[in-house]
Amino acid sequence: MKYALLTLLTILSISCNFQGKKSNTSKLVNPALEKANAQIGEYVVETFQDSKGNLWFGTLEKGVAKFDGNNLKYLTTKDGLPSNRITQVIEDKSGNIWFGTGAGISKFDGETFTNYSEKDGLCNNMVSNLFIDSKGTFWIGTWGGVCKYDGTQFEKFHIPYPKVVTKINPDTKNWITSIAEDAKGNIWFGRDGYGASKFNGHSFIHFTTTEGLNSNNVQAIVEDKEGNIWIGTRVTEKDNADMNKRFGQGGLNKYDGDKFVQFPKIEGLNEGDVFAIYKDNANDLWVSTTSNGVYHYTNDEFINYNVPTSTMSFSKDKKGNVWLGCAGGLYKINKEGETKNITTAGHWK
Q1: Residue 335 burial (C-beta neighbours within 10 Å; 0-12, 13-18, 19+)
Q2: Contact, 87 vs 45, CB < 8 A?
Q3: What does each C-alpha distance from 175 to 59, 69, 108, 125, 192 come to in angstroms?
Q4: What is the tens place of the pLDDT at every residue in 270-283?
Q5: Residue 257 · residue 227 · CB < 8 Å
Q6: How many of the other CB atoms lie within 10 Å of CB of 78?
Q7: Residue 31 and residue 313 in contact, taking contact as beta carbons nearer than 8 Å
Q8: 254 — phi, psi (to 5°)?
Q9: Which terminal residue of the chain has fewer beta carbons within 10 Å of its beta carbon, N or C?
Q10: Could you report the per-residue pLDDT of 107-119, keeping only the tens digit for each?
Q11: Alpha carbon 238 to chain centroid distance?
């Protein structure tokens, strides 16, 4: 597992210049000045705004950073978190903030942390996803499978393994990379090596390269306003020990309920990794790449923004700014389309 994590972080840390068509409004503001400031985190893997307007930024090494509109504050193991590796942030209906961490999950009521780990019944301490569905079911995705939590106890949830034609990495075979719900109430699970699985409450349907996915290493799943399922994948061959053989298919897939469509003409979306897909409050999609910035999909068009590093998470705030958690720090695309590196020194407004 450690090897797999280091492999993924190596992939995420690659920064390349974008070579495709750029948005007319996309530009990086004062990059030289901003490099002198401390980054929010070396790896910002989660961005989230709660119901009170607070912004939360999960990092892999510095805990979680909270910005309340005026002040930036870090919460770490010193404050009660079980780990400084924060992979997911969500809010429940009672206003509690839940954190997925490298040592279990944690509930924060605004004052104190309540932590849960394998000793409490959690299926694995390496948490990758937290998701509360429309029925109130709390799903927890980990590097050791998925479980449900009813507020009292954890229940292991088994997902069958479909037959796949690609080689399975034993370090990531049980990694739950994504959990999502569609408009019909189906729960979708993304797995690294076994594609996507749809659960209707009774049975599963699996989607792999056999059904048309460009890779079985699924990283993100989102439903759009028209009911299409968008799936981001990574290149399976990047797990190959031979550096000369780390090339293959991966990127963005669109499933209309009948067939999969890929986007070979859009740079970075067909032979690369898509780690994050996000639907904003305008029902537009945001899609990450590892070396071609990010894409805003709106009105059936992909608009590119030049973000100089890999993006791992998106969140659009109530003011219309889009926050990007990246390998290398935190970025923001403001309403004018300017891309800014947000450091501890600011550019918050």
Answers
A1: exposed
A2: yes
A3: 19, 35, 25, 12, 6
A4: 989 999 999 999 99
A5: yes
A6: 9
A7: no
A8: -120, 125
A9: C
A10: 999 999 999 999 9
A11: 19
> Which class is domain 2-26+78-318?
mainly beta
The 10s digit of each residue's pLDDT in 288-330 is: 999 999 999 999 999 999 999 999 999 999 999 999 999 999 9
pTM for the full model? 0.89
Judge whether 75 and 84 are in contact, CB under 8 Å.
no
* Cα separation values, 213 from 207, 312, 343, Å: 7, 21, 37
Q: Which amino acid is at 96?
A: N
Tokens at 243, concatenated: 């550096």
Q: How far apart are CA 344 and CA 40, in angstroms?
A: 6
Q: Please, is 216 exposed, middle or buried when counting C-beta atoms within 10 Å of its C-beta (0-12, 13-18, 19+)?
A: buried
Quick one: which of 93, 186, 95, 90 has its CA closest to 130? 90
